[in-house]
Amino acid sequence: MHELNLKLLQDLQALADTGSLYKAAERRHITHPAFGRRIRALEEWAGTPLVERGHQSTTLTAAGKTLLASAHEVLGILEQTHGLLQRPHRTRDETITIAAGRTLSHTVLPGIITALNQAMPQLCWKVVTTSLDYGVEMLLQGKVDLLMCHAQPAIEGSLQGHHLAWLPVGQDTLIPVSIPLVPQLPKYALPAHGGGPLVPYLDYAQSMSLGKILRSHLHELCDTTRLRTVYEADLADSLHAMVHQGLGLAWLPLTLVKADLTEGRLARAAGPDKDVPINVRLYRRPAAQSKPLTRRVWAGLENLYGRSQKS
């Protein structure tokens, strides 16, 4: 099996952008045959076809779209890290680096930054979008100043003994949604207990905090034996896209689907009693292990959200 090379992920991005093997090869400054070999190498690594090769255009398969979403995240993290490493040490000391999941980075985090910047307008933020497990590792190793994540028992266990401080900074709700069959009537309704046809279900990857939270409630919410998993991804955005394609139902954050529900692009797959509330927290290392700027920022956050607690 071929090793994964970052160039191959960039090739996939170029192919998705252009929709053509020839145009993508030109963008990547290589010949068309060489580009084709690199895409086949990526498919060999993935173990599944990633592109649909047509006469007029080339499109990504569902697997290709899933890999592309992950590629965007990986390449974005590396670009952010490279930019941070190029800055002088003095500039890095004046920057707050925060690790957050991709969904939180564009739903909850912007409001926090906006509120805090009113009191600290000179503050520079560096956001690293990453998985929960890697975010925890980065915080404990001092590679980031803060960690934003969804509150859940699993993370509490991994943070025990590190004397971290945390603040509750937001709330969201996981809502079961589907494309509508007719306005406000879902194509896929949440299966009740008592039998019936299988319902296609879009699930979070095991590593995702949203998936861990949802799975801890799922048996109480519906007859799980009637959910047929047809798609799994480690990005809420990817599940969101597949719900829009009509592939099945999924529990998605209200912050992500509120406009879809209001404008009728999606419909609830069940009533509010099947919603799952989720809390959002910010974590930092002990004050003695935090740089002065982090301590000042934390004091500003406490003015907004109350006194911090210890894990």
Number of domains: 3
Overall number of strands: 14
Structural class: alpha+beta
CATH superfamily of the largest domain: Periplasmic binding protein-like II
Number of helices: 14
> CA-to-CA gap between the ends?
43 Å
Taking pLDDT < 50 over at least 5 consecutive residues as the criterion, the unreliable ranges are none
In helices, the fraction of residues equals 40-55%
Keywords: DNA-binding, Transcription, Transcription regulation
Protein name: LysR family transcriptional regulator
Family: Belongs to the LysR transcriptional regulatory family.
InterPro entries: LysR_HTH_N (IPR000847), LysR_subst-bd (IPR005119), WH-like_DNA-bd_sf (IPR036388), WH_DNA-bd_sf (IPR036390)
Short description:
The chain is α+β, with helices and mostly antiparallel strands and about 300 residues long. It has helices at about 5-20, 20-25, 30-45, 60-85, 90-95, 100-105, 110-115, 130-140, 155-160, 210-215, 220, 235-245, 255-260, 290-305; strands spanning about 50-55, 60, 95-100, 125-130, 145-150, 165-180, 180, 185, 200-205, 225-235, 250-255, 265-270, 275-285, 310.
